[in-house]
Structures are given as C-alpha cells and as structure tokens.
Amino acid sequence: MAMDGETIKTMITDNIPGAEVHIEDLRGDGDHYAAHITAPCFVGKSRVQQHQMVYSALQGKMGGDLHALSIKTSAPTED
Amino acid sequence: MQNVLFERIQKELDNHDVVLFMKGEAAFPQCGFSSLVVQVLSQLGVPFKDINVLEDSDLRQGIKDFTNWPTIPQLYVKGEFIGGCDIVREMYESGELQQLLDEKGVKAA
After folding, report:
1. Rg of chain B over CA atoms, in angstroms?
2. Model pTM?
3. Which of A46, A56, A75, B69 has the maximal Cβ count within 10 Å?
4. Which residues span the domain enclosing A37?
C-alpha cells in the first residue's frame, strides 16, 4: 500500500527536529515522490548519514510501503 | 548466519575496487534505480563488479543490514559505502563522484 505525501512529510517532521520538508508527487500517481529535506541536525553529517536519519524517521517504511521516494537533503547553511 | 553473509559481502568489497549491489545485472538491470547507477558508472568509464541481489534473498536483506541502508542499489568504492541512486546521481551531477574516484585512485577503463 503506497503512502501519501502528507504522511511522509509528517513522519519526517515528527522525527527530525526543525526539519523543513518539500514533497513533490513526481508522476501524480501517489506512489513516486521526491522529498527535499533541510534540517539543522544535518550540519556536519555526510549525505549517507543525512539520508539514514530520514530513513529512520520513516520507521522502516522505506523499501516496503515506500518504494519510490527520491530523497535530497541539505543542511541549512548549504542552501 | 549473518556473520557468514557479512564475510561474503566484505570479501566482494575487498576483491573489487567498485562494487554495485543491484537488481539485475549491469548488462540487464531490472530496476530503474539500479539502471541509473549502471549508466552513471558507464558514463564515467569505471569498471565495476555487479552483484544481482535478486538471485539471493539472503543477500538482498543482508546488504541492507550490512550498511543500515533500506534500499537497493548500493554503491561501494574501495570498500566504502557511497550511497544509493539518489546520492550517486547527486554526486555525479556535481562532479563529486569523479573527484572521489580520482582521490581513491580508481581509474577509468
């Protein structure tokens, strides 16, 4: 069962303090999203670590309900 | 069981400079995300070892545990986990991937 954009956004903002999340429904089918997440806690972290924080915020949904979520992360200063 | 699997994975990483755990094979990717990483590596002319996780369900889960990374494909350079499709594409587009390969002494074919 796919997840909708709002649920993805809420899971991330609930679990990553100060996260700003921009969700894009890439194909309008409710199953292929891109998320751009900016969060203070990403500062000093590698991309892999930043993405792992997002995946843990999504509580194991990634690779299961969520097959196609493209993630881009950045620390505030990188904007 | 997991240790045996992790040893198998580590052996592949030790034996090859660039390893791509993917769905399908380099010549015949079976997932858009895996296919994209194969194209990136081909564009850079980087030889790599492709490992088809679809042929081994233990490996398919084991590799995710190995790196605490929930998806496939997974790219490794000189034993270091670089990322999945998103990160590889981002690094390729910014030139960081070529720079990383140069720094690690990985030559194009």
Report:
1. 13
2. 0.91
3. B69
4. 5-74
Domain membership of residue A56 (yes or no) is: yes
User: Is there a contact between A59 and A66 (Cβ–Cβ < 8 Å)?
Assistant: no
Residue tagged 């994209």 (tokens): B36
The rounded distance, in Å, linking the Cα atoms of B45 and B37 is: 12
Contact between A52 and B68 using a beta-carbon 8 Å cutoff: yes
Query: Tens digit of pLDDT for each residue in B43-90?
Result: 999 999 999 999 999 999 999 999 999 999 999 999 999 999 999 999
- Note whether residue A34 is domain-resident: yes
Q: Hey, are the CB atoms on A71 and B86 less than 8 Å from each other?
A: yes
Strands B18-22 and B74-77: antiparallel
CATH number of domain containing A37: 3.30.300.90
| Structural domain total, chain A | 1
Are A73 and A37 spatial neighbours (Cβ–Cβ below 8 Å)? yes
**Is A79 inside a domain boundary?**
no
The shortest CB-CB distance from A48 to any of B64, B81, B85 is to: B81
